[in-house]
Amino acid sequence: MTSSPLNFTVAICTYNGEHRLPSVLDRLCLCAKETPDSLTWEILVIDNASTDNTPQVVDDYQNKLPIRQVCETQRGLAFARHRAILEAKGEFVGFLDDDNLPETDWVTRSIEFGRENPKMGAYGSRILPEYATPPPENFHRIAPFLAIVDRGLQPRFYPPEKKLLPPGAGLVVRRAAWLNCVPDRLVLIGRTTHKSIAGEDLEALLHLQQAKWEIWYNPAMRVRHLIPASRLEPEYLLNLMEGIGLSRYRTRMLSFPIWLRPFALVAYSFNDLRKILRHLIKYRRVLESDLVAQCEMRLYRSSLFSPLFFWRETLFQKSHRKSQP
To answer: Is beta strand 6-14 parallel, antiparallel or unpaired with respect to 41-47?
Structure first.
């Protein structure tokens, strides 16, 4: 498993993952037993400035897996993933979060699918949840925002006009395509505080899509996503939906040429207003008690205000730069 060039790199980006990483690495030990010797691969752990014993956990698996680790000191998932791409030795790079448990054939299925179509720039897994506690009623309506993706048992192409893309968890990318198309620094960097905007995975995929790389869904790549009770709490879910909504100005406008963006902004704003009004009418009697309906409303409202958020941030950054000596 040490020959070069390698077929595949499993990239695990983690922050303070000492208690979560062992489950993922144990599952990858099972992957190692089922992956044919003809397929060469490695595991790369990107420690995103952890303050716990994450490095020691990785060291404990040195004799069990083809594993190495690097430290990315800039906090943010976008920085960690880009570092993974730079450090990876595989033709394909498969991203797993430290709460993702791949099936034992995930590495094999990932390599095989990428080889089938040289036009694929990225493809996502079938991600099924394992809830620590029962989710709220009607949770399926917002489950995809927690990287839970089940689009059936047949592979599917993501058409650019549908504005739908897979999440970063369980995503496999063609390394050369990423290096050629995705900027070194994305606008969306990931959640580093409870108010940070999300969408860094979508922004990267949109750059690939604009460069005419195809994005696919591959159900043969199966991943279990562990959802702890804390991620089903109202505060977490509402902040998550707000962050996703605030990112939408960036992810929406990236699909349009600059001259067309003002018209697209008007269209999206009217559509967001329509969704808010329709939601208020439909759920007016239960909005205060229905957590899922509250999350949807938070998403629609923050999507509407996303342009103002970005414009304010831009003005703040310009003012801050001018004030620097």
So the answer is: parallel
**What was the pLDDT predicted at 3?**
45
**Integer Rg of the chain from CA:** 20
**Positions of the chain with pLDDT lower than 70, given as ranges:** 1-4, 190-196, 314-325
Report which residue type is found at 43.
Answer: I
- Long-range (24+ apart) CB contacts under 8 A made by 67-73 are 67/25, 67/42, 67/43, 68/42, 68/43, 68/44, 69/44, 69/45, 70/44, 70/45, 70/46, 71/46, 71/47, 72/46, 72/47, 72/48, 73/49
The domain boundary residue, chosen from 216, 232, 248? 232
pLDDT of residue 296: 98
SS (H, E, C) 163-177: CCCCCCCCCEEEHHH
Q: Are residues 159 and 19 in the same domain?
A: yes
CA dist 124 and 171 (Å) reads: 4
Which helix (H) or strand (E) segment holds residue 290: the answer is none
Q: Give the residue ranges of DSSP H helices in the chain.
A: 21-34, 54-59, 77-87, 106-116, 175-181, 200-210, 234-246, 248-253, 261-283, 291-323
Find residue 95's DSSP bridge partners: 11
The closest of 188, 147, 152, 183 to 168, measured between CA atoms, is 147
- 1 lies in a domain? no
Tens digits of per-residue pLDDT, 229-265? 999 999 999 999 999 999 999 999 998 999 999 999 9
- Identify whether residues 226 and 291 lie together within a single domain: no
Identify the burial level of 91 via C-beta atoms within 10 angstroms of its C-beta, where 0-12 means exposed, 13-18 middle and 19 or more buried: middle
189: tokens are 């960097």
Whether the Cβ atoms of residue 78 and residue 198 lie closer than 8 Å to each other: no
Helix (H) or strand (E) holding 95, with range, is: strand 90-97
pLDDT score for 323: 54
Residue 310: inside a domain, yes or no?
Answer: yes
The H or E element containing residue 60 is none
In angstroms, rounded to a whole number, what is the distance separating the alpha carbons of residues 251 and 237?
20
